């Protein structure tokens, strides 16, 4: 599309990396969670399973503490003569001045003369093992169910994105980098999946675990619980300060990653050009410089972010020391049992683990919400105008096309086509020529309803195209673009793509008409030859011939050729012109061409400048008028420069020359034809 320059738009593409930070976190996070709404009962079950897991996990240490009390009581009771009342032993210790020992034994349920009660101990151990086993089952079940729900949500999200892409107008893609759109469809959706699968599960489980542990701490000893909670704001402050610094470094890391990826992509896509101009060393130097920047940014980000856990562990160790000292004193004073002290110490160790997990998934969750925000921007993009199909075209149309006072512009501040009118008679070939940016490709894109008109009408067989469905209209049109596109598959499948119900015989007939059959027969696998995704196993000219055959097999009523012969050699071009002349005999054709030699036999030639038709007629008529078409023709096929300069009307022609690279092989044949 030579008349519309694609701009990068407002969105940058960081080399395919997902977004790292959301601009509107909470609204996007709320909408992301809202995607789970259709599965709310499944999520309720997930939360119930996680709740059971957390309850069993946080109660188990308390039960294990009871087992510790049984062991301690057995060791104490074994060394006291049987038959002596426990109260008497405690009073005797107080009387002898051993108040600390007496206070400690007052919290121990010992029986003088009796050792460890292994029956009771085994019961406690069995209960603890059962609790941990059941908790593990519930944890696995919650993870399995959550993954099922998340995969279903992501499946629906991908489907919505794919449907949305098909409803977006072409100008949406014109104003955005292709890599940015691909990144939203692939990387960002994958990032959402990771955030929902990992961050959501860990976040819910960790928060509930923290709440459960805090409750059990206060149940065991509210005084020691307060000591343990001192570590919470300290850990949070450390994680917040370090995390904010790490976030900036991660942003720099992904920025440099995008720059390096762009450098690598540029090196590979322009590899031949780089070789031609001998810029290998320059590309290596640029790669080395950007790789060094990425190394520094990545090292800094990983180093700073890696400090979070050591700092949190240090704060945890301080809390652990304080709890151990205070717990020992309380056990010694009889304020709590040894089992409760043991359980509390275990709680204090387990308390930091979910806090670390919450800090660890924060960046992942933020990144996931940022990706969700980008995906929602795509889903919220303005769609093409809704169809109001009130008419249908017959199976085979005459192909009469009429432009009636058509005006169109890509942007409101830059008019392109204004008040344009012309008729293309059925079965005629209409060639459209003009300098770059004149509006040639735009003209045929309007026929296809790739863009909607600002004003005016385009009629196809007396039907306003806005009253036809886009699918119905486009099913009657065959189009061959300047850039040949082939998908991964066989040559037969690529040609049949024009009409999926075409028989092998029809495909081969179309291939023969476009001279595809000539080179396919020479391939080892013939029409079953696999075309790779880049189409590197066929030449550029052969690719274009296959796309022409694809349009031919569709047998359209309207045929649009947008510089369709630009990639074929001159000899093949003459053969293709003969085939197209036969095919154009019963259909209306629009041909956009820079090589004027390819449209000499057109019924009507439209010469466009700045969105307007400045001349109209056939080849001979336009040459006689010596106007815009004559100047274009002279710029391609004129003789020595001095002859051109002798004519003041043609001296300024080079500024509008179309396709200088093709002049070398087009001009000689044109001269032969004119001679």
UniProtKB/TrEMBL annotation:
InterPro entries, per the entry: AAA+_ATPase, ABC1_TM_dom, ABC1_TM_sf, ABC_transporter-like_ATP-bd, ABC_transporter-like_CS, P-loop_NTPase, Type_1_exporter
Swiss-Prot/TrEMBL keywords: ATP-binding, Membrane, Nucleotide-binding, Transmembrane, Transmembrane helix, Transport
Primary role: ABC transporter involved in fatty acid import. Transmembrane domains (TMD) form a pore in the membrane and the ATP-binding domain (NBD) is responsible for energy generation.
Stored Pfam families: ABC_membrane (PF00664), ABC_tran (PF00005)
Membrane topology: Multi-pass membrane protein
SMART domains: AAA
Region (Disordered): 641-675
Localization terms from the record: Cell membrane
GO MF annotation list: ABC-type oligopeptide transporter activity; ATP binding; ATP hydrolysis activity
Protein name: Fatty acid ABC transporter ATP-binding/permease protein
GO-annotated cellular components: plasma membrane
Ranges annotated as spanning the membrane: 41-60, 124-146, 207-232
Domain ABC transmembrane type-1 per the UniProt entry, residue ranges: 44-367
Gene3D superfamilies with a match to the protein in the record: ABC transporter type 1, transmembrane domain, P-loop containing nucleotide triphosphate hydrolases
Top-level taxon of origin: Bacteria
Domain ABC transporter intervals: 401-635
Family of this protein: Belongs to the ABC transporter superfamily. Lipid exporter (TC 3.A.1.106) family.
